[in-house]
Amino acid sequence: MKGISSGVLGLAGSAMLGSWSFAASGGRGGGKRPNILFCFADDWSWPHASIAGDKVVKTPTFDRVARQGVLFENAFVSSPSCTPSRGAVLTGQWHWRLEEGGNLWSTLPAKFKVYPDLLEEAGYHVGHTRKGWGPGRDEPGGRKRNPAGPQYKDFEQFMKARPDGKPFCFWFGSQDPHRAYKWRSGVDSGMKLEDVEVPPCFPDSEEVQTDICDYYWEVQRFDTEVGELLAMLEQRGELDNTLVVMSGDNGLPFPRCKSNLYDTGTHVPLAVCWPAAVKGGRVVEDFISMSDLAPTFLDAAGLRPPAEMTARSFLDILKSGQAGQVDPMRDHVLTGKERHVPAQEDDLGGYPSRAIRTHQFLYIRNFKPDRWPSGHPVGYAEPVEIDVSKPRGTGFGYADTDASPTKSYMIKHRDDPKVRRLFELAFGKRPAEELYDLQKDPGQLNNVAEVADYAVTKRKLAAALMTELKATKDPRALGQGKIFDTYPYYGGARPAKPAPKPNR
User: What is the pTM of this model?
Assistant: First the structure.
């Protein structure tokens, strides 16, 4: 397993979390440029934090950052896939503008400026640990290091290497809660299956509940480690003038979540605090794209974001002291997806799609509805026997969905009347347009794109989406999207060539 042990999580971790707190005033921060500590989880979805209402997972560090700062209820990634999501964060641009960087296991061309480099040029000490930008390769894009900055063993080593008087910008890239999980780690830590609120896109079974608890266990480990970083800063007297950000790069690694444009794939937790400059105790409803972090970090450091950054700083919201909907212009957000893994019948690449999300609706445009949104089945003529106790479950077929006990359970029970529709929603083909009324259908299971009563809404959202995509020079909107299917895949061997289509 990754990171620290369960013993540290249960004992030392909880003690550490209780030891740090934020000052109520500006304190030592004064007018100095802030330090920046960005803590990025791998595959962590909203609302899986105790402050967001989840009754099982315990996230005291995230909760404290949110209470002492700002909790953003509507934060969305640019893409529900690690590499393009992280590229968007670093460049402050939509991932579809990043050429090869719009795909998983790609490269990020050096012509795209990243905020760690810009801060370093302005006198910041920068670096990262564990997972920075990626997965992918730096060299083909012309880079000599990870776009997240020089790599350090840990935060302590980074701080020892920091020159006196320099502000720092550090990227803590956890591998939690990315799979694989230790089976029953959550239950064995004391989580109760009966308390788990299973998302409506999954079957409500003991196997699925157990899998969710294992995911929660790793969320908690990430939370604990961030608490240790904050305790270290408090001991150094630097916490008050540090801009702290906690979030995730895409949704949880389950069917119809990660690598999908539904909220379970794109909606992530986001808490931000900077006690020296930002009034805490607020919940903000404005839509934030994670690509907005780059211009926000630069803005906080007193730098003007480059003109090519399509994202917008939200420092004004942080400093406004207001809650609720602060900026009326932030009433929607865009998301999208290109190739996650090359899992289609013809090896063309991914399942290209774009979406616009408002407070009431989610509209999705699928550009290639003839393709498989979760990858080709690779032949499931008959139900397979599955041992869900294996950490990864069964990984054959539907390769755009991470192997897991939940995925295996849904495949095995796909003919069960209670599972059949959920299986089709997760793994079956989809129409060119999807529309979900979030007030009536928060789980986003009932597509109303062809319902007459929603015709005007669909037309307006589709037009708004395409207008913004064209304005940001999205190749898909300009009829040049095929280029995404030609970029190299650096993730090793492609998934097995699909077998003949299932006889179903």
Answer: 0.91
